[in-house]
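Final report, Chapter 2: Outcomes

The project's central promise was a pipeline that accepts a single protein chain and returns its three-dimensional structure in a standardized token representation, suitable for archiving and comparison. That pipeline is now operational. To close this chapter, we reproduce one record exactly as it appears in the project archive, with the input sequence first and the structure output second.
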Amino acid sequence: MFVSDFRKEFYEVVQSQRVLLFVASDVDALCACKILQALFQCDHVQYTLVPVSGWQELETAFLEHKEQIKLLIKQDDDLEVPAYEDIFRDEEEDEEHSGNDSDGSEPSEKRTRLEEEIVEQTMRRRQRREWEARRRDILFDYEQYEYHGTSSAMVMFELAWMLSKDLNDMLWWAIVGLTDQWVQDKITQMKYVTDVGVLQRHVSRHNHRNEDEENTLSVDCTRISFEYDLRLVLYQHWSLHDSLCNTSYTAARFKLWSVHGQKRLQEFLADMGLPLKQVKQKFQAMDISLKENLREMIEESANKFGMKDMRVQTFSIHFGFKHKFLASDVVFATMSLMESPEKDGSGTDHFIQALDSLSRSNLDKLYHGLELAKKQLRATQQTIASCLCTNLVISQGPFLYCSLMEGTPDVMLFSRPASLSLLSKHLLKSFVCSTKNRRCKLLPLVMAAPLSVEHGTVTVVGIPPETDSSDRKKVHCRQPGPRHVLCVSSFFGRAFEKAAESTSSRMLHNHFDLSVIELKAEDRSKFLDALISLLS
């Protein structure tokens, strides 16, 4: 069933029952889960939490508990969900007139009625053929592109607000969920700014304090603030130099994989008047006099070097006076914990560790996640430099293609879907900045990385084209309508399916992101040939 009133049709329904909670392996889902957990704890609702990394795990868990499951989906009009009657037909409709009961009527009356029934059945069959043709068109139009709507964590926070049970912690999880969508390019800049405005009002409401003794904040309190901060990853927990080198935006603009790019970075630092000794030490250890005006200095110099979007709208959180994190810091840390290549735990262990890191009582896990994120970001930029310097990104006609070979340094860091997707997006940005071929700048990217040597499989991901518009990537489709400006789309899900079907390639479409698949390495060449033919 579709849910229009989330409070009455969802929360009040499950409030009096034991709840089975399926949670996907992404940061936004984890944040939504934390908010729901807090609500359930407040209302003494019993629940069982089941992490699911893909369709197979979801199907297995569903079959185990299918007798007790009700499916609730929040309808989003912006995504143009097809109407029920356009997709489904009740069996009763088809069986209603199938029988032809005999009665004691005269032969002439029977013949007349039989002729009428034949005409009626012919009309029904024609209507059904028309309905099936319309259904195929609707489903193809709906399924050929993949969209991301409003953050799940934001939806859960709105529920908590309607119930008058929203807390500062819940608000922070909603912020992190939204930031995860922005970091991974799942929504447009326009959508991000709009949702930031919504959350900013809640931040003002929750974190407003008068300057009197009665409202003085305790030392270990949680404070959330809105700010225009630098577009540099983890810079407050790293050195400024490392952050500049490992941020996708600055690395691509400076072209840091080249000698000329390294010189431009030195010129940029000189233009700001920052000594290398200060830039290369931890941000927290920099001179206070330099840190006071650092944002303005960097923004001013960035404008001279053609980087107009060096500052972004974001939120930060303070735990007392010692611990401060930007929302993007938490996203990278949580993502790194969840996709950790460490073999000392299962996927469920990593999931639980990532979930725990979102609680302020587990700051040690969050700091561990930050260290893993630094390692991941370094490996990402090193891999991008290697791919560009050795010309691994090649044009296949309708798309660009890059494949990471077995034995590439840190290749196992990119076997997981989110990590490979992020690498692919950053690689495409850097490639667009480095190439002089105008046509290549408009092409999408297909990237492959080894998944399992034992099973001979690779992970393949498809990334939509990069654009220079301030609205990030709009929908790459010809259909008009509200989708055209509200959502980032990917057409690769359906294209991968068609290419695999036509070549009998052994493909597993297990991930919730339809543009990520698992493929047998030996089927890769024929799969790519079919994909080229399909998209040409």
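Archive annotation: Residues 72-79, 468-489 have pLDDT under 50 and may be disordered.
This record, like all others produced under the grant, will remain available to the consortium after the project formally closes.
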